[in-house]
């Protein structure tokens, strides 16, 4: 049987994963949380995806107008992940996001796979934004009267964005929020103007013919899943949020609601105003600039040109923020010794992880150059679905093992009627979406799993500290509950043995019993004549701690060693 030392076990009972940082000022309120979260979502999901989704819902052969339903269904499948991450973020408000949650819950192997999946998701979403930039750039080309090589322009912009991220120009990130907010306002204004002035074909967006088959609806819902990728991004700056137990979950859920309403409204009006066939480019498939087509139809060339310019600016700002976010995953994994150390290096002058940024930029360039736009969107959605499934699983595992890993104390929990049903819905629903999405997403998930496993086995396994994870504890609870209790007892003993002597005096003995929950009351200063919890125990009469201490001190040296402590724990453990 494995032996448990202080380094392995103290964290199981008493120690939080990551102390909340006191270096950041908590100044972000609920409104700021909603705006920041929305700014991470509204972009390519509206400016590029709608026409592709119309074709997807038509079975890939003809576009249909019921694409709004796919955005609505996708939001329903995002909801469990949003609720789960709301809970996780209040337990670890400064931990840095999904990678840390998964790595600490399931261990470094699954953490490596999740880190690669998160990196790929953010990288592909940023590449998708640059594809949108390229799609709308031709309008500006006509306005200025200069021929622009669109492929070269998008790659040149990528080089500039990589350079800006290395230089660490933080102020540029702050302009993303007003840009995206103005973009959303402009699109909603176009929709309102279209409803007021155009003859809309509502039958084309709500009739049975507008939705294709149920398989098409499911695959399209999975396809647009990436539109909601930023809904939980605010958790990464949890250390700067005021009252995170309230503002984090409510902000995440409100931003999901607002973004869903925006996506549904805009796509519904787009399809009702302009026939879906008009969003196609002949034999070349779906148009990648549907907002320009919609805006021009509603307000003419000038309004369309404004929409195109706004799209270019929005896509640029999203790509800028996206590479910043995606490059942090290899940086964090290198810090945790799961990837080579050079990715952890920070530039001496600019203070940024330059190699992680450069590597992410190269991957984005390859995706833009060689992957079709449809595959980029599908792979990004597939990776995001996989991560949301893991996030939902984290909550179930951490809740199940919380008695042995007492650091898990979320300030906000999934309401009882929903837990664990909403998490199970997210896990199995996500698996169904991956199935309906098709081979690309499944291949992407398999590649991440294989590559993550190879990296961990060949590099990270011998470098990380072997710790007992909540996932291991949960498995043990099902197969060997006595072993789980023994781990708890070991952990409580070593946590109380602060000087590492291998023995507990009376005061330390009281501390260990308190950690195990064996003491009546729970005040900060428990006297040595406090009572061990009676009722439902092997010995049903009240037991004073002093008496129990002397009973357990078999060699009468005034100290309790680990074997004696195990005997005491067995004496007062619950009956089967």
Count of the domains: 2
- Number of helices, counting only DSSP H or I runs of 4 residues or more: 24
What is the residue-mean pLDDT, rounded to a whole number? 82
- For the record, what is the CATH homologous superfamily label of the largest domain? Amino acid/polyamine transporter I
Please tell me how large the radius of gyration is: 27 Å
Outline type: elongated
What's the helical proportion of residues? 55-70%
- Runs in which pLDDT lies below 50 for 5 or more consecutive residues are 1-25, 534-541
Strand count, sense and closure of the main sheet?
2 strands, antiparallel
Give the ordered list of helices and strands: HHHHHHHHHHHHHHHHHHHHHEHEEHEH
Just give the CATH class of the largest domain. Mainly Alpha
Strand content: under 5%
The CATH architecture category of the largest domain equals Up-down Bundle
What name does the CATH topology of the largest domain carry? Answer: Amino acid/polyamine transporter I
* Count of strand segments: 4
N-end to C-end Cα span = 23 Å
Structural class: mainly alpha
